[in-house]
Every structure is written in structure tokens, then in C-alpha cells.
Amino acid sequence: MEIRVRFYEELNDYLPPQNRKKDFELRINAGCSLKQLLESCGLPCAKVDLILVNSVPETLGYTLKDGDRISVYPVFERMDISSLNRLRNTPLRRLKFICDVHLGKLAKYLRMLGFDTLYENDYTPSRILELSGRQERIILTRNQRLLQNKKVSRGFLIRQEDPWLQAKAVVAAFDLRNTASPLSRCLECNGLIVKIPGDAVQDRIEAGLLTRYDVFFECDKCKKIYWKGSHRDSMVKLMEKLLAE
Length: 245
Fold this sequence. Notes:
Helix content is 26%, strand content 19%. The protein is of the alpha/beta class. The strands form three sheets. Strands 2-1-5-3-4 form a five-stranded mixed β-sheet, with no helix packed on it. Strand 3 (50-53) and strand 4 form a beta hairpin.
């Protein structure tokens, strides 16, 4: 049997040079599955986020047929493929960002939406490049020259000056509407917010708050305390508006 195969983006690194970034033909034995095809090409299944057979998503157990056209994709950073994915319960996409020194308010918006976002007002370009490469973070920057650096593999140029418009642009560009988890991260340090009992914070907040609220939250990193006050309701409405737009 003969099939046509194409691997996309960084998956080409596993192929011999003559087969990279183009369709190529393969002869296979009857009964060969997609999983066996990937293994024969030396490609780890954990690196694959989507496989289309004749433009239809399939599982690793699919049995190949003569004349099939196979398209193999890595993690989709710019698109949510939850509705298409048949390889696993959740896509591989785990978006993490790092903002340059000009994007402090954008960083807070993204944290408010629940996205892992690093920001410090003294980040140097070299520090941003180092963290982005080591932690596989997408660089968000107003500096086009930074994105032209050969070390950058993930980046997005922010063209807007207004932080609200910047946030809208990132939400749209990376298809974040269905993957946001509002108010799950600390706005100050990017840590995760966890629920804690009131008696655990009685020595750390004003006494009056304990009489008005019985549910509290704490950042697992900087230990800042949060509660469901009017400020939280305002932020929820803000995030709903941002995601709706």
C-alpha cells in the first residue's frame, strides 16, 4: 500500500532532509496504524497534537488504507483545537506568556484571565529571551527588533498602545475565549489562587472582613489574600466583556 504524508512545523526535525516541509510518499504494510506510522518515522506520539486523514481528524488506532493522505501537526499555540482533537482528552496546548517592560497592564489582564504570564519592570531583552526559551513562553512585546532575534521561536508583536486593546488583540490572536480561567491567578506575582478557610486568615486581614465574608482565597506563591468583594464582581464583569468582544 502507498500513502502520502506531510509533517508540519517542528515535527520536520524528526525527518530526513529530503522529506521535510513537503508531501512525500510511503509504502506501508496492510494493517499499519497511525501510531505505527509515527513510530516508524521516529516521531514521539507525545509531540503530536492533531492528525488528519483525508482532512478528517483521527485517533492513533486508525488503520491506514491505500491512497490515504496524512497530515501530522504539533501543538497548536495559536488555535484552540479541543473540538477537533481525537488523540487525547485535552490538546497539548499550554499557553505561557512573558511580557516586556512596556506591557505591565497587559500582563495583569492576562493573569486576570487565568493565563500564566511573567512580567517584571526590569526585564532585559536577554532575560526575556532566556526565560522564553527555557520555559517555552510566548514573548509579547512592543519591540519588533526583539522578535527578529534568532533565539525567538515564539513571539507576538503588540501594535496597540492601549492595554485594553492589547488584551483584545492577544485574546483574538491566540483564540483564548474558551480556555480562560478568570481570577485563578494572582495579579501581583502570577501565582495560583487557592481557596482557604476563614480561620486561616483571621490574623492577616481586617477583623470586619471576617464578619462580612466566609470564603477567602490565597496566592500559593506570594500569600496575598483575596475575597469575593465588590472589586471581584467588577473584575468578573470586565473579563466577561473582554472575552465577549
